[in-house]
Design a protein that fits this description.
Layout lengths: L5 E10 L2 E11 L4 E5 L6 H8 L7 E6 L11 H4 E4 L11 H11 L4 H15 L14 H13 L5 E5 L7 H16 L3 E6 L2 H4 L4 E6 L2 E6 L1 H6 L4 E6 L3 H10 L3 E7 L2 E6 L5 H9 L3 E4 L4 H12 L6
Parallel strand pairs: 3-7, 3-8, 5-6, 6-7
Antiparallel strand pairs: 1-2, 1-4, 8-9, 10-12, 10-13, 11-12
Helix pairs in contact: 3-5, 4-5
Bound molecules: adenosine-5'-triphosphate and magnesium ion (MG).
Length: about 300
């Protein structure tokens, strides 16, 4: 990797007694899409806010192109585009007015602003909605406008906090196409998502839980190294099956799969498990691992005897 665009070193943040983020080490290179993936309360927003310099660290540090985002002389504001998880736009301003407002925040010249605005409205397909108030936009359109505002000043690094949460599947796909187009132009993206299926779309992912990075790597490599087996459970009465799985020592964890269950099982499990499930009218159907399964297995390793 060339000199990383973003580095965090032992980055930690407490709120009172809550450790929201614990010793996060990241090094993200130019043109990379890095996904912080984790459940509610994992520490994703805290990490994003630290990177954006919205809050300070309890210990450790953030360097964006070698600079602390909180420093007085920092130029990080010029090279960072930050899209917060929560509403960041003026709801009673129109799409065009929001863009103009953020252009003024970043002191964009008039001609520069016009050109950027047209380009961004084009790529986000918001041209038709320029006169619509932000709070009258759909969830997906709102997120695209927030992204457009974060992109106005041509940042090198984009920090996107759950950019696709609450966005419909079609708009999510468009959003990802847009992100890929941006990194092809050399942008670097740190994003967070609670959606495990989005992990596979990143160049590199970090699985985060209770403020700690549990696992990091390229999605395919992480899945390829997975040492356990994954099964969908077919047939049987759900509660009975769940009880059996929860008591079986070779089952590392279970997760819902629609109305059914999914189980991560030690690779050397005994046929006894098959037999006992069979007695409940259930069968184990092998299925490839996904990121949810990586999480389940990793949490089990963290807390032997404990369950995901
Ligand atoms: N300002 C704050 N004051 C007190 N506690 C906070 C504050 N911000 C975050 N926390 C706590 O820190 C932990 C991590 O929160 P954070 O918002 O970073 O998680 P998250 O991964 O973004 O979750 P979500 O997916 O729900 O957005 C949580 O336990 C949260 O309650
Ligand atoms: Mg959050």
């Amino acid at each position: 990797m060339n000199e990383p665009v973003l580095i965090t070193e032992a980055l930690s943040r407490r709120f009172g007694t809550v450790v929201a983020l614990s010793s996060l080490d990241l090094a993200i290179g130019q043109g990379e899409i890095y996904g912080l993936v984790g459940p509610d309360g994992a520490g994703k927003t805290t990490a994003m806010r630290l990177v954006a310099g919205v809050i300070g660290a309890s210990s450790g540090r953030v360097l964006v192109r070698g600079q602390d985002p909180l420093g007085n002389e920092s130029r990080v504001r010029d090279i960072l585009g930050y899209m917060p998880q929560q509403y960041s736009l003026y709801g009673d301003l129109t799409v065009a007015e929001n863009l103009r407002f953020f252009a003024s925040v970043f002191s964009l010249g008039r001609a520069d602003f016009q050109a950027r605005k047209e380009r961004l409205l084009g790529i986000t397909r918001l041209e038709r909605f320029v006169d619509r108030r932000a709070d009258a936009l759909s969830g997906g359109m709102y997120k695209k406008l927030a992204l457009a505002c974060a992109l106005l000043h041509r940042p090198e690094l984009l920090a996107l906090d759950e950019p696709t949460n609450g966005v419909d599947p079609v708009s999510r796909r468009e959003f990802w196409d847009l992100l890929r187009a941006l990194v092809r132009e050399g942008m670097t993206i740190l994003l967070s998502t609670p959606y495990m299926d989005e992990a596979a779309r990143c160049h590199r992912v970090g699985l985060i839980h209770q403020g700690r990075l549990l696992l990091e790597g390229e999605p395919q490599a992480l899945l390829g190294r997975f040492a356990h087996r994954v099964f969908r459970i077919q047939g049987g009465q759900r509660d009975e099956v769940l009880r059996l799985l929860e008591q079986a020592p070779e089952v590392l964890g279970t997760s819902p799969a629609g109305a059914r269950l999914r189980a991560v099982v030690r690779a050397d499990f005994a046929p006894e498990l098959d037999r006992r499930l069979g007695a409940l009218g259930s069968t184990l159907v092998p299925t490839p691992p996904d990121f949810e399964d990586l999480f389940v297995a990793r949490l089990h390793e963290e807390q032997p005897g404990g369950r995901a």
